[in-house]
Amino acid sequence: MPVDRKRNITVDIYQIMLPVKVCFGVGSLDTIGDEASKLGAKHALIVTDPGVYQAGLVDPVKERLSRARLSVDVFSEAEPEPTLPGLNAAAEKLSQEGYDLVVGVGGGSSMDTAKGLSVLLAHGGRGQDYVGINKVPGPGIPIFTLPTTAGTGSEVTKAAVFDDPEKRSKFGIQSPYILARLAIVDPTLTYGCPQRVTAVAGIDALTHAIESYTSINAGTFTDALEVEAMRLIAGSLRAVVKDGSDKEARNHMAEGALFGGFGIAHAGGAAAHALAYPLGSRFHVPHGVTVGLLLPYVMECNLPTNPTKYATIAQRLGVKTQGLSLQEAAEKGVEAFKNLAKDIGIPLRLRDLEIPEEALEELAVASMDVTRLLNNNPKKLSLDDVRRIWQNAW
Ligand SMILES: [Fe+2]
After folding, report:
1. What are the residues whose beta carbons fall under 8 Å from the beta carbon of 276, sequence distance 6 or more?
2. For the segment 187-207, what is each residue's pLDDT rounded down to a tens digit?
3. Centre of ligand 1 from the C-alpha of residue 218, in Å
């Protein structure tokens, strides 16, 4: 943290890169037609998954775009945990259509597929060509993102994550060129989200808040967002999983997930996300389950690096820390996260997912390759540290 010598205070230096516009709130979906017209878009591709399509969530989006005189096609085959071969096949199928707007409607999978298609339809090639940091050569087809879960925050991030079945891990395309032109976060789109998806997406959102709050890249901007994200999510997640018709809780979750997305877009995910990649890829476990299960064990390992921040996490998760030492308060935060995960049906141990103990060594070695995320972790992790996390989580 640099020091402003004139005023003798410490100040963070940071850059903020967000979508061109974020519309948040009940009814914000209504802005989509005007926004598409302002761009001069004529031919839109809506990218979604079969569940979201069958739930009827694409209809109001399509209707509003059609009313604004766009011709609209729908690709409703986004995979639940999208893969690079799936992305390549979709791009090949759609390459001759001449789209000038890609609209991702759904959870992270649909939005990430939309981002990937924006790149491939504009620049050609395969998804593998753009994996890594800043490999996209220029702007793609403009992207609108409309989340229907309160989860990934992909609507405002500059990353899209895909499974590579050949390499048995997940890989991110990370580039400012895949930031959405417009993110519409209308909580009404989440009101019908099924209970299990609500839980799995919600714990992912909370993990984003905690990992980016404790990332080595965290600063005053992301801290402010993440502290509020933790409050919003921890205060609503149990309620919304218990009763999906609780609109106030749904609204808080949507806003918390958005803030979590802002944070992870700037400070980055860390070890829980790094370890989740090979686990999700090899054992086909949904992303939210992998990060929700692993985070408490990562927190235990990271806690000595900044007990003050971990004590704040405890407070934001509802722990009464008065009378506790800093260390005790910080440890209570780990416990509070586990309790919340348990209450919403997230497994607490790898053995609950029937992951064999013999797989841990391979998972540990594969995790060490996810340097993009491990480099953000507050503690520099050795292979032995990572082995210990896997063993504790088993
Ligand atoms: Fe995540």
Report:
1. 170, 287, 290, 291, 294
2. 999 999 999 999 999 999 999
3. 17
